[in-house]
Write a structure and sequence with these properties.
The complex is a heterodimer of chains A (337) and B (134). With 337 residues, chain A is α/β, with parallel strands linked by helices. Chain A is built from eleven helices and eight strands. The longest helix of chain B has 15 residues. The radius of gyration of chain B is 14 Å and the shape is globular. The chains are: A alpha/beta (337), B alpha/beta (134).
Amino acid sequence: MSDFSLEAIRKGDKLALSRVLSRVEADDESGRTALDALFPFTGKAHKVGITGAPGSGKSSLVNALAHHLRLSVPDSRVAIIAVDPTSPFTGGAILGDRVRMPDLQNDPGVFIRSMATRGALGGLSDATLALSQVFDAAGYDYVLIETVGAGQAEVDIVNLAHTTIVVDTPGMGDDIQTIKAGILEIADILVVNKADLPGADQTYRNLTAMIEMGYRGTSRINSGHHPQTELLTSPAEEPRGWVPPVLKTTAISSKGISDLVSVIRQHRDYLLAANAWNEKENAALQHTVNRLVIEELANNWRQNLAPGQYESVMEALRQRKMSPRAAASALLAYNRK
Amino acid sequence: MPEKKIRVLIAKPGLDGHDRGAKVIARALRDDGMEVIYTGLRQTPQMIAEAALQEDVDVVGLSILSGAHNALVPQVLEKLNENGQNEVFVFLGGIIPERDIPELLAKGVTKVYGPGTDTRVVCQDIRAALADRA
């Protein structure tokens, strides 16, 4: 497709932008060319990831958040990438996040793009980073990335976003859930959404306790009953960097959203001051390059395989004459000749 | 490279609150391997066209049970054209009297479906329309 115009995209032509997003998502030749041309203009947008369990209110939170960002700084433009799962059986998908974003439908400063995971398993799709780069180059100040409803291990967002918000809700389990590895660990900001529901305070306390366990320098546990625990907090201790704050929100009535916005801005300031902004940016790019190298290697390998070779190794495997590892070695060794 | 995904926006313009039909169609298209963007109830033609633009869809499916199709559908078509999306196919489903159909087709609607339509027919029609264009 030859209708790619860098100029048009940078000037805010939504049709041009939308079409390029599709090409980039399809990862075809024109999409790759476009992304190469846009890349020099990237690196400015604040990429904020929003993740959490299905039904925890991510879309509603994104709606309230984007709305508030636009109201507080009317010049700023907000892009939203909302990811929903692709069916593993049919390849189809229902992308329903827009339903929860009524406040943004008539706002010319907001651009919402729904994406299907298309087989990726980490809570995003393979093209999510690339799409965020297109928005970044197009001059969007914020790119809010909503992951699929995440369980415990869909943590790809942390490789992409500057700020990761993990959304929890009341009634999702006891304090053992909060000390498991995985999704809660990746939070820069923890949000207890649906804070108007019973149990919200308990969830808030569990999450706060989890944070305090992890960041010893800030421990305030039982300070009333056991004053000696205060001694654990040495005044000479190094500042421990960013301690993820826990916030309560009720997205559908916008309660707590202005606090959330200020915390997001504080996190940005923190990242910039600690030089962590660039570190995150570089890590994300490195991650992408690594993934592309592996993809390319796999493609080359497949193309160079002799006809029938794969099938004969698989047959040996089926007959238990070869272990999976031996089979893999055989396929790679053949390829090297 | 996998075949290009067909992207469809399913929208309910106007004020009727019955979205069962829209959801059944959305589900059927999903099961046929398409990516379906569902936008919910009470959308204006402006909102539908804007969503179609941002999502770069191939097809817009409108569900109207209120009888306001003669007013709403032309507005959706007009807004899509204004945004430069004249190549997007518009399909319409709902309670649409026979006598209104020729006019709607003349204005640019690709197909009109009534109650009892086999969802497989809708999937086939979408694929056929896109194949013709390519």
